[in-house]
Write a structure and sequence with these properties.
Elements lengths: L1 H20 L1 H35 L6 E7 L2 E3 L1 E2 L2 H5 L5 E14 L4 E8 L7 H4 L3 E4 L8 E4 L1 H6 L7 E5 L5 E10 L4 H4 L2 E5 H8 L5 E2 L1 E6 L5 H11 L3 E5 H39 L3 H12 L4 H32 L7 H5 L16 H27 L3 H5 L2
Parallel strand pairs: 5-10, 7-9
Antiparallel strand pairs: 1-2, 1-12, 1-13, 3-11, 4-5, 4-12, 6-9, 7-10, 8-9
Helix pairs in contact: 1-11, 2-9, 2-11, 2-13, 9-13, 11-13
Length: 396
Amino acid sequence: MKVLLEKHLNILDFALSTIWRRKQKNISIFVVFSAVIFLLASFQMLTRSLTSLAQDTLKETPEILVQKLSAGRQTGLPVVYSDGLTGIFGIKKVVPRIWGYYFSEVTGANLTVMGLDFSEMPMADQIDLTLEEGRYPEKGEAGVVVGRQVEEVLQLGGRTTISLFRPDLSLKGFTVTGRFADEASLLTGDLLVTGLKEARDLFALPRDQVTDLCVYVANPREISTIAAKISDIFPDTRVLTRSQILKTYQVVFNWRSGFGSICLLTALAAFIIMAWDKASGMSAEERKEMGILKVLGWETSDLMALRFWEGVVVSVLAFITGCTLAFIHIVFFQAALFRPVLLGWSVIQPPLQLLPEFSLADLLLIFSVTVLPYLAATVIPAWRCASVPSDTALQG
């Protein structure tokens, strides 16, 4: 065992000197290889980071949402539906909510307007944690809480008033009473939160209707059971649990990441073709060197080990470099290259503070689709060349 280890250490030392002698060729492969791994690792890290951020942000959302459907589309939900939910054992609170989209023709941005009765919220102290400054509007007050991105899009500057158009094009004024913290920007980046009465007035909804009901459950293990009971009582409603909403985020992020990864596979395939061409298209000098080594007593297995270690050194260094650059790209540059692909090309882009999420499975996946094909592209041609008689190789 010791002799075998010393043998491979000597081969590795010779491989390092060979790499340095052909540094121009190996540096070009290293740069392209690192770039491909950087692109793949960035996509994988960004997808996991966004999913983790969505999971953390959704912790304070209602466990169950109840919405009314008509012809497969969401419509106004009668407020009296909340009375039918209070009798279900395990429900802690039912809070009516109004939300909708407001399109700003001046800025071209879609804003999300949400109306709540904050005095009815069961976790008011935790909700206040999402505020960076100010407060939520009191009952009957035409106040609104906005995010920093909404302030920038609406160009509020030092103003504390907002005017939005009702459906009949009359203006409704709001006073800005607070601003959301940037930590919750994934959900609050385009959000304006106001009172239930003010949101109903803005969207011109009937007084007996809301858009959905927020259902808070005492025991998280009973969420699916309570959701099934709600569906049985009100079969014309759509019942969404927090886990289902999180899965929707995961599907969206994974679909967009998969789309981007498929596009990057073309770059990976091009790199593998390039690596195979460079490895199989050995120069006369390289073939002569292998012939000399065979004359000196090197066996075919030794020559294959030499090329194997050359490939390992280049590919592993490229793998480490690519993953490190991907980490820096996520942490310090907030995935500036690929964030629009996963978040969409909205006018309002939240300033996300991403923490890289990476698992051993991700590393193995990237390693298997990049490093292993490259090693095959170097060892197999080396075996073909090493099988040639030494006198033939010396002839060039």
